[in-house]
Amino acid sequence: MKYLILGAGPSGLTLAAKLIEKGIKDLLVLEKEKEAGGLCRSRDVDGSPFDIGGGHFLDVRRPAVTEFLFKYMPENEWDRYERDSRIDLKGRVIGSPIEANIWMLDTDTQIEYLKAIAEAGSVSGAPMPERFTEWIYWKLGKRIAEDYMLPYNKKMFGEELDSLGTYWLEKLPDVSFEDTLRSCLEHRAYARQPGHSEFFYPKKYGYGELWKRVAESLGDCLKTGVAAEKLDIAEKCVNDEYKADVIINTVPWTDFREIKGAAPALKKSIENLRYSSIVTEYHEERMDTAAHWIYYPDEEKDFHRILVRHNFCPDSKGYWTETNLTRYRESGKEHFVSKYAYPLNTIGKNELMTDILSEMKEHGIFGLGRWGEWQHYNSDVVAERAMILAEELTGE
């Protein structure tokens, strides 16, 4: 075939659908699971959708992406929300991000936080450190670091936290000391919200319904239940069976059992990639909150985040928790494990990926999406990158 796409998550599905839209039918998508969607798959649990890979939503900020995806699930089948995310800080629930919402705490705590931020390296002019844990102190000061950011991120990323770099921090809100001070004086948040400040979510389905429909549009160009285990980069062949002019990989590089023809340095680079795994668990209780999701730094709780299902999925009840697999305490409740949840932004990872992707590209193999590029991209971002790659591949 001309194009062989490995993985039917949002990036692989979008790329295939875009190529077919351009009139290219000589392609095949391989997916190891029985259904497409990757981390964005949904199940019906207790009569309502459950997004098994954690909280995934369609951001409104990329109109070209939403316009393309609305061809498969029209806009009138979606609700639009303004993000309501919160933090449970020692039993006191405040808005997120914390830097813009410490005004919701008592006056003494506000003063302590403001003093600590004023003494932080980012305010005093100290150079930005390379390690994420050091950056937290540098940016937010000792109190927010130790009360929230460090315990929360340790829960989310596990023991790898000290190995993370700082090059990925555009994912986090950027709140200046002046904005924090102003929010305390005026009792309202000042901050640029991170991703999903506004988002779409299906009215009647889980988020996986979108990707299910995209998958169905591919027809015979999608083959499920086939894991890409062996990659021959010289022959551009997978599992000694599927050969193509161009291979686009969207699955984790570490998941290949064998990469034939790879130099030792390339194999070593792939071995050095890190990721974290999560468990999502359903709880039937209805929470008395209007929040869409809530962050929990409390280390006594195994989970780090709650998704309040009934606040973004109409006519549903309950909520689901998201927990790092290394912390999960079995409860007997309905739950799902995602081995590959978050690619970890370890120090030196970008250099590793530059080496991996450049060598693969020389052989006509491209990396795409969260796992093909090993970046913590949301689904709207990987869809956009897939659409761009489709243009590049077809020379349009």
Describe this structure in words.
Helices cover 31% and strands 22% of the residues. The protein has 396 residues and is an alpha/beta fold. The chain has two domains: 3-83 and 199-394, FAD/NAD(P)-binding domain (3-Layer(bba) Sandwich), CATH 3.50.50.60; 100-186, no CATH class. A seven-stranded mixed sheet has the order 8-7-17-18-19-16-20. Helix 1 (10-21) packs parallel to helix 11 and helix 3 packs across helix 5 (132-157). The longest helix has 26 residues, at 132-157. The radius of gyration is 22 Å and the shape is globular.
Determine the CATH superfamily of the largest domain: FAD/NAD(P)-binding domain
Largest sheet strand order? 8-7-17-18-19-16-20
Instruction: Enter the CATH topology name of the largest domain.
Output: FAD/NAD(P)-binding domain
Sum up the overall morphology in one term: globular
How many separate domains? Answer: 2
User: Given this structure, which CATH class of the largest domain is correct?
Assistant: Alpha Beta
> C-alpha Rg, in Å?
22 Å
